[in-house]
């Protein structure tokens, strides 16, 4: 059934497609760049279609190349994972999660103890760089937790919860805000359509006239810095109900007029289709779903393929 498949050429193609470099693929496969080029050329001849555009200093997948890569990468990944589960004397399993520093610090890390207690043999590594990762190109990352209004139809995903923004402060600041204009604490984000006008939207809904009274404004590059400033009593912060949940539960922050909320987007966990069947990934998905349910912050909808993107703070 599979006797005619050029497996060596397909493996060379997958590596070159993922790395977008014949040289890098050659290093990964421990062969010469000429050998990789020959294998890919023979695969193109066998298929009868070009798979790469050869540019002066780079290569780029054609439409046919993209289609083949998405199918082939998932298939080889599943085979590799199946083989890995059969290996004896496996002392543990690594799992790499990509998300933002704010989500990791304010929501994920405080809960990870429960994951480790349930899965002591899984070693988890967090990647909190701001760059958006292409999971089809970077096989070193198992899954991502992202936030946006965008759709990613080529990824398998689990919608975790929807977000809204409210105003929070220390008990003293919440009390004082009823009688005077507070200092406003805000966050600067790159490419965000959600936060830039957050204070304006919240004040419009609440009827507060703070913005017309030229309040002092403190801006931070990261949400966890803004929350720490609010906890320290430096003013009121416009914050995500998800990222502020631990501080509210511990009594460090209180909502100010908690009935006034500005809609945000949603958080989802995403991976390359097929990778969700890998035991550590499956375990993490199940744990995330349970934690989301326990938090009470359920999504308004539960799509089969997670529609989401990524929040990138400034």
TrEMBL record:
Any one GO molecular function term: DNA-binding transcription factor activity
Pfam families: HTH_1, LysR_substrate
Keyword field: Activator, DNA-binding, Transcription, Transcription regulation
Taxonomy, superkingdom: Bacteria
GO biological process: DNA-templated transcription; positive regulation of biosynthetic process
Database matches in InterPro entries: LysR-type_TF_proteobact-type, LysR_HTH_N, LysR_subst-bd, WH-like_DNA-bd_sf, WH_DNA-bd_sf
Domain HTH lysR-type: 5-62
Family statement drawn from the similarity comment of this UniProt entry: Belongs to the LysR transcriptional regulatory family.
Name recorded for this polypeptide: DNA-binding transcriptional regulator, LysR family
């Amino acid at each position: 059934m599979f006797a005619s498949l050029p497996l060596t050429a397909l493996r060379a193609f997958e590596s070159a497609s993922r790395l977008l470099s014949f040289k890098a693929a050659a290093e990964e496969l421990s062969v010469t760049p000429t050998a990789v080029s020959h294998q890919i050329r023979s695969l193109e001849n066998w298929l009868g279609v070009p798979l790469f555009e050869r540019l002066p200093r780079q290569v780029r997948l054609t439409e046919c190349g993209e289609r083949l890569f998405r199918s082939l990468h998932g298939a080889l990944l599943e085979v590799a994972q199946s083989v890995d589960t059969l290996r004896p004397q496996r002392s543990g399993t690594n799992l790499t999660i990509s998300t933002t520093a704010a989500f990791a610090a304010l929501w994920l890390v405080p809960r990870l103890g429960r994951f480790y207690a349930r899965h002591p043999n899984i070693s988890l590594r967090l990647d909190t760089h701001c760059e958006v990762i292409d999971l089809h190109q970077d096989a070193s990352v198992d899954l991502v937790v992202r936030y946006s209004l965008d759709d990613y139809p080529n990824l398998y995903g689990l919608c975790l919860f929807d977000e809204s923004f409210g105003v929070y402060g220390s008990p003293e600041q919440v009390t004082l805000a009823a009688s005077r204009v507070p200092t406003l604490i805000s966050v600067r984000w790159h490419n965000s359509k959600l936060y830039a006008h957050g204070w304006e939207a919240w004040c419009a809904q609440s009827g507060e006239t703070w913005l017309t009274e030229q309040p002092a404004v403190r801006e931070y590059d990261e949400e966890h810095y803004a929350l720490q400033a609010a906890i320290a009593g430096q003013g009121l912060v416009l914050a995500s109900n998800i990222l502020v949940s631990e501080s509210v539960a511990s009594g460090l922050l209180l909502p100010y007029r908690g009935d006034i909320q500005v809609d945000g987007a949603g958080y989802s966990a995403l991976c390359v289709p097929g990778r969700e069947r890998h035991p550590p990934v499956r375990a993490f998905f199940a744990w995330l779903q349970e934690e989301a349910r326990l938090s009470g912050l359920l999504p308004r909808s539960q799509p089969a393929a997670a529609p989401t993107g990524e929040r990138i703070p400034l």
